[in-house]
């Protein structure tokens, strides 16, 4: 993986892909037809992914990778997180579940090349990251040299503890920002802009992060239709009076995923996976390549109680 081995400042590499309406429609019609065959165990998740595909079909446009949401339902207090991970589809992506030890928490992360792109631990600490316009390096700080996400999930149980690790390690990403959220309802987006660390704390019940710097949007990638769409769809959901659950929160990512398409070098890119996490009830669902069939559904409490490391390689699991 280029940005792990050569430039850790990138942390998570995201790219523009032009989405031609006809390409989208042809692809999505095939995907939508698959939802006609549903099983009892996956019918609810199918509706989520079907909704994501329908929205893209109706609103074909340019897509920029990487969208993250942390959300607290004010009516129930339940907390959810959603991530759309977009990159080249030939990467060897997988889920890694590390068991609890004397000094480290049990944790699950997803990514590739031994590098966590996002994840959650047994205490409900969630994180994810997204690329941003490059910023000047902060004096005395550095980009990570190892699997930063895994280390934070292993040692931190709250947002505050995660921030302490970043400061202790003198980490300041020059091409990315990070979102941390925990089971208490606390969440923050961390950015390193203009020679200092900027913290965007949750001030209502949601935090959305895509690929522009919230503390300096004029730096690039703004305005962002994906960010605005997620906010808009959350507002619609809240004003509808409907009961909020993981499926409906997942539906807010209708414009935050992208079907596969080749770039100028004929390399396929798109949404590798979309993760849906109920942090309160320890439920985890991952859809691989926008598929209704290729799903990972986990009870995190059960997985974190296991004593052995688990690796779930998507290509091996679904092919």
What would the keywords be for this entry?
single chain; 319 residues; alpha+beta; Penicillin V Acylase, Chain A; 8-stranded antiparallel sheet; 7-stranded antiparallel sheet; 9 helices; 17 strands; globular; disordered N terminus
Outline the fold blueprint:
Elements: H1 2-5, E1 16-17, H2 21-34, H3 43-58, E2 63-64, E3 67-72, E4 79-88, E5 94-98, E6 107-112, E7 115-121, E8 126-131, H4 148-155, H5 159-168, E9 176-181, E10 187-193, E11 196-201, E12 206-209, H6 225-240, H7 246-251, E13 261-262, E14 268-278, E15 283-288, E16 295-299, H8 300-304, E17 310-313, H9 314-318
Antiparallel strand pairs: 1-2, 3-4, 3-12, 4-14, 5-6, 5-17, 6-7, 7-8, 8-9, 9-10, 10-11, 13-14, 14-15, 15-16
Helix pairs in contact: 2-3
Short description:
The chain has 319 residues and is an alpha+beta fold. Helix content is 26%, strand content 30%. It has one domain: Penicillin V Acylase, Chain A, CATH 3.60.60.10.
What does this 3D model show about the protein?
The chain is of the alpha+beta class. The chain has nine helices and 17 strands. The strands form three sheets. Strands 11-10-9-8-7-6-5-17 form an eight-stranded antiparallel sheet. Strands 3, 4, 12, 13, 14, 15 and 16 form a seven-stranded antiparallel sheet that branches. Strands 1-2 form a two-stranded antiparallel sheet. Strand 15 (283-288) and strand 16 form a beta hairpin. Helix 2 runs antiparallel to helix 3. It is globular and about 45 Å long. The two termini are 22 Å apart. Mean pLDDT is 85; it is low at 1-42 and 55-64.
């Amino acid at each position: 993986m280029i940005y792990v081995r050569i430039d850790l400042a990138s942390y998570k590499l995201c790219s523009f892909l032009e989405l031609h309406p006809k390409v989208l429609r042809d692809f999505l019609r095939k995907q939508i037809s698959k939802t006609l065959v549903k099983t009892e165990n996956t019918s609810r998740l199918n509706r989520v992914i079907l909704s994501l595909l329908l929205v893209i079909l109706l609103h074909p446009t340019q897509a920029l990778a990487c969208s993250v949401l942390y959300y607290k339902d004010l009516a129930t207090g339940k907390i959810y997180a959603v991530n759309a991970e977009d990159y080249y589809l030939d990467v060897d992506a997988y889920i890694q579940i590390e068991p609890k030890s004397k000094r480290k928490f049990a944790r699950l992360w997803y990514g590739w090349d031994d590098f966590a792109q996002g994840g959650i631990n047994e205490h409900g600490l969630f994180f994810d990251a997204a690329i941003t316009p490059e910023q000047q390096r902060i004096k005395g700080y550095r980009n990570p040299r190892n699997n930063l996400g895994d280390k934070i999930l292993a040692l931190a149980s709250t947002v505050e503890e995660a921030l302490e690790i970043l400061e202790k390690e003198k980490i300041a990403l020059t091409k990315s920002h990070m979102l941390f959220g925990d089971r208490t309802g606390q969440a923050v987006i961390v950015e390193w802009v203009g020679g200092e660390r900027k913290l965007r704390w949750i001030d209502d019940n949601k935090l959305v992060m895509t690929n522009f710097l919230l503390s300096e949007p004029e730096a690039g990638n703004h305005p962002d239709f994906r960010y605005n769409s997620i906010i808009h769809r959350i507002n619609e959901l809240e004003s509808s009076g409907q009961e909020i659950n993981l499926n409906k929160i997942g539906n807010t990512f209708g414009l935050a995923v992208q079907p596969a398409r080749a770039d100028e070098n004929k390399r396929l890119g798109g949404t590798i996976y979309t993760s849906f996490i109920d942090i309160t009830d320890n439920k985890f669902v991952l859809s691989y390549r926008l598929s209704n069939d290729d799903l990972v559904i986990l009870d995190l409490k059960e997985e974190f109680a296991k004593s052995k490391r688990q690796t779930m390689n998507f290509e091996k699991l679904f092919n």
